[in-house]
Design goal:
- Four copies of one chain form a homotetramer.
- Chain A is globular.
- Chain A has eight helices and 18 strands.
- In chain A, strands 1-2-3-7-4 form a five-stranded antiparallel sheet, with helices on one face. A five-stranded antiparallel sheet of chain A has the order 9-8-10-16-11. Chain A has a two-stranded antiparallel ribbon with strand order 5-6.
- In chain A, 27% of the residues lie in helices and 21% in strands.
- By secondary structure, the first copy, chain A, is of the alpha+beta class.
- In chain A, a hairpin with a 4-residue loop joins β1 and β2.
- The interface between A and B is large, with 121 and 122 residues.
- β11 of chain A pairs antiparallel with β11 of chain B.
Chain lengths: 368, 368, 368, 368
Amino acid sequence: MSLNTFGHLFRVTTWGESHGPALGATVDGCPPGVTLDEAMLQHWLDKRRPGQNKNTTQRQEPDQVRILSGTYEGVTTGTPIQLMIENTDQRSKDYSEIARTFRPGHADITYHMKYGRRDPRGGGRSSARETAARVAAGGVARAALAQLAPKLDIKGYMTRMGEMAIDRDAFDWDAIETNPFWIPQGPEIANEWESYLTAIRKDRNSVGGEIEIVARHAPAGLGAPVYGKLDTDLAAAMMSINAVKGVEIGEGMAAARLKGTENADEIFMGNDGQPVFSSNHAGGILGGISTGQDIVVRFAVKPTSSILTPRRSIRIDGSPTEVVTKGRHDPCVGIRAVPVGEAMMACVMLDHMLLHRGQVGEMGGRIG
Amino acid sequence: MSLNTFGHLFRVTTWGESHGPALGATVDGCPPGVTLDEAMLQHWLDKRRPGQNKNTTQRQEPDQVRILSGTYEGVTTGTPIQLMIENTDQRSKDYSEIARTFRPGHADITYHMKYGRRDPRGGGRSSARETAARVAAGGVARAALAQLAPKLDIKGYMTRMGEMAIDRDAFDWDAIETNPFWIPQGPEIANEWESYLTAIRKDRNSVGGEIEIVARHAPAGLGAPVYGKLDTDLAAAMMSINAVKGVEIGEGMAAARLKGTENADEIFMGNDGQPVFSSNHAGGILGGISTGQDIVVRFAVKPTSSILTPRRSIRIDGSPTEVVTKGRHDPCVGIRAVPVGEAMMACVMLDHMLLHRGQVGEMGGRIG
Amino acid sequence: MSLNTFGHLFRVTTWGESHGPALGATVDGCPPGVTLDEAMLQHWLDKRRPGQNKNTTQRQEPDQVRILSGTYEGVTTGTPIQLMIENTDQRSKDYSEIARTFRPGHADITYHMKYGRRDPRGGGRSSARETAARVAAGGVARAALAQLAPKLDIKGYMTRMGEMAIDRDAFDWDAIETNPFWIPQGPEIANEWESYLTAIRKDRNSVGGEIEIVARHAPAGLGAPVYGKLDTDLAAAMMSINAVKGVEIGEGMAAARLKGTENADEIFMGNDGQPVFSSNHAGGILGGISTGQDIVVRFAVKPTSSILTPRRSIRIDGSPTEVVTKGRHDPCVGIRAVPVGEAMMACVMLDHMLLHRGQVGEMGGRIG
Amino acid sequence: MSLNTFGHLFRVTTWGESHGPALGATVDGCPPGVTLDEAMLQHWLDKRRPGQNKNTTQRQEPDQVRILSGTYEGVTTGTPIQLMIENTDQRSKDYSEIARTFRPGHADITYHMKYGRRDPRGGGRSSARETAARVAAGGVARAALAQLAPKLDIKGYMTRMGEMAIDRDAFDWDAIETNPFWIPQGPEIANEWESYLTAIRKDRNSVGGEIEIVARHAPAGLGAPVYGKLDTDLAAAMMSINAVKGVEIGEGMAAARLKGTENADEIFMGNDGQPVFSSNHAGGILGGISTGQDIVVRFAVKPTSSILTPRRSIRIDGSPTEVVTKGRHDPCVGIRAVPVGEAMMACVMLDHMLLHRGQVGEMGGRIG
């Protein structure tokens, strides 16, 4: 991770501010020969797009992505892929008061402390809008993975929103796409979440969320000691998303409560000649390298700091003020973090597939 | 993070296997003019050293560190600092059975899956012994920080060990150094932890742990959007430590349960002309950049997988087997993770101080 | 250097193909607070722009650069700066024959060997058009340098074009801007070069060139052992320019012919309390670190491979063919390499100023 | 290149000072499964070792390399390989006068300007002794290349030493190993070089040299646009060697004198179904990617600055002084640069093979 770039061989640099002319991602190191067009990326951007229901901001962002380079006749050439999303919903307004006030819980004050200045329009670079560029880049990674690891399936869902948590005993993969929270639960539970969030919103408040991203049918042998670990890179990728405050692999923080006998994933030989495990406390990663089990990452997103309830703060000149958010904001940004987390997982998985192929080649060790 | 290297400008590459001739760290990018000698590093290594009480492995490792390069007359010259720790406690024994068996919960199987081979002696590169090199490198970072940010104070402590958790209302900074768990609690609580862990050990079991690392009096303005965030690098640094399964900043995973009104850190002007905050849910970082508050990182360490209770597993040829650990192992590796976490925090803080100075110079923005 | 990115802290990633929708540069790590607008960049792009006289290709490329991110109210914010140049002169035509033929001396065959495909339109990514993005990025570096090192002056000029070479005894700084070859010579010499090149062009041929870039009033202390040397990065920067086949620092290749007594730059104290040197065989760099003397880099550009004279080659299917370039091409691409080399020097100098400030701070060692 | 590290996937960090306890190289990213032992590395170190004849310094350096990590039972495991060479020939002496004097043509003054201090013992980090670590690392690269590209043959030789230059019409590959200059010429010519250098040495002088490194049977498709070019990395690798002032690929600086018709390498199909070229002006690289032809790199080494003839200089306090080198020094360091250049070529070639395999896989494009 290097300021605005992440990845080793599949390298993504995002750029752009919320209300500037455009934002996007410069994707370098993509394998050649990958089928790729704008519609494939738009699919994922539409999933992240706000304005789709009343629980995400009503700001209308068509988020049309354009591919400016790196493909020829619908196939990647191996050269940098420039993805650009023009900002069409820039409302011109007076930013003078916003520019001199620090919104609590936002990066306004830290950008000022670091750089001595900031773009105050819509949060500038620190806006969640930056994640649109990640989703676009993740679409490129998914396209490459579709060819390199066709069985690999990356899917995210919410596991918690404030007091609401999923029931793992009723986990339903097929339900994820049927509700606006991407929860793996039936419509009754989804309705409960809906009512809960509506109440939060009407109370001029916001709420945090927890998201789980799973990579099923992941290849074994991805990752590397000691700092290029797969879980290290996943932790960094998720923690780099706006408002994320915690990242877990497998058991996560709960591992601190477990005994060795409880945490052990015992190993057997499966019928197909591949090792199988009695459980997956490890989240699919041992010693920083994937085991072939599902890779399970979870992260927490803090409640949106922009709320309609007044909060005390200061201005650049040190004078006290009160900040009340007006306008369009998500009562739970965690919802839109689901496709963002998926995109980051896709980028990390592709990057580590290329890294592995680079150092080791196609073959690893055999068992049995 | 690049395989075995971490850091942007202050770059640490650790090398070495548990039972090879030596292990160590190659430290590049250290500022010149830093007072540094082996005794300063040994201080931190002694803190991590096993064999100090019955709750850490009885293996005797003097862990004597040597500085092979990069200093002249006790001062750093700006060139690479090579730190070497010779492995003196290598018992020669027959590794042929260990070499063909995969211990559950260890990296044995994944190293094999990736590389087709591994050094089976004492876990090779995946041994927790690698963290000695981190602690040595962290000692270099601390020495540089002592000159660049003399007020900065980095301290770690356990917050949980299985069912035992600290009482935050009785938090006592001064108690941390007085007990073998580095808990911020008085001797009675420490005795309870001792009894608890003794029971775990006698039960041939192990237990996880949770560690919190705090950087007090940290400079504001460290970190950078969007992937060079301070919390991104801290998450990666902690997740890269052996057996770590989760990382939290400030509220961490609990942020998913909070409402916006609960999570807000309101801002005021302090008497010394610096901003103060009503609380520190953010853990000292907003938008990836430090606020000047305490930086608070927490991570969970899974229970040691090497336990004296038999676990089922397989051999390289796919045949089933049972693994029982013999010999010296920690019932809670989380204890020794405290100085390791401190070392990683020190490295990240120094790295970001240099990065900030590089891009922005000595000055940031003023308030008031 | 990482595929399409160069630089350590001031990092430039160029992207785009000759005949795609656009090309540009993603500039990360620029200091905040730098005055920057599109006109400042356009100044340098206009210097590189073809179609200005009959010795550069007649292709009309307005090369209008847009700043899409990273500035606010005409000042850099410290976030990534996206520079985009739309390709307006894309002639739609039939590329099917070009797509299956390898032009001798071009990257057509190697891109195919590596990637299995390429964008055949105008040379795609391997076109000299990519250097427009470098010049734009160099403009950003120059703007930052104007604030960080106001005395620093970076200037390039041709020293040779085929049989024509400059007369160093008649070196005239002020003449550089007065002729289309940027030679430091009076109009009579420039006319001779003009006649020479006209003859080459009429002969359906092309010719190589040698360019020298000098950084005057460069700070001492830039660079680092052993691979982050200033001359290492300059060599890489210049060699990465299309068609460059050699790079020299100071005496360059001629150093192989010299004796120690001839090559020595003796050292004295100057009247202003700074060291002065009896000569500058070293080109301003000793041990990879700048001395404070002029930094002198020279590079050779091969003759344009696209010539109107038929050359034998093969097609993708292995069949023999003859290639004759039609249309607009430079008889000497070395001319336009002058502003490109200046841009690369500017980027390297800024990068090393930031690197130095990061590791060492503002102060180095004093003499006297 | 990052201060003391070079390479993308095969990463080498050298460390150590001339007269410190040891120096060496940390090699990260080596493929697993490579047969490697100390004797294989010693072979190359012995080639570089001084004290072998009267034209290289008489300092006795056994240069015994030890492998401290990264191999098990004589095979690489994929983890970092630490190579250490202890400095056994450290003469204790009084460095106080040397420490306050800047030797002309050395890095003494620039290290002081940058860092405010330096290790004065034997030139410290800037000593040519650092190249021993490169040669050791190059030995690792050669061992990996022997398995990945068994036909690849990397060989260096001198092409010029002051007024002496090789006769390319009498080029004799088999003669290279038969004379102390590694020139591809018969014994009569070697004797002439010997007499020439003896005269230089007796005259208390030194002389520069030019070295050519050729990689024969190199795979096509290595390298990448635009900054990860194979020639860019080769230029950086060679320029990073002590005392190198110029680097050329193929025609090199002479390309500036050529016409397009003279420089063209025409393409044909060979009898084995691979493309062949009419000539190799390109030095085996087009557009930054290898063509499958011989890769030809040439570099110039300046004459040793340490000569027995007095040179004027200054001390740290600014006072004038005269420097006369005493003791053991090479009259032509270019001779020992031959194995160093070979080592750098080996590292770059392996790195690009891994990079290519990472991004593209085993296959590139077919012709015919």
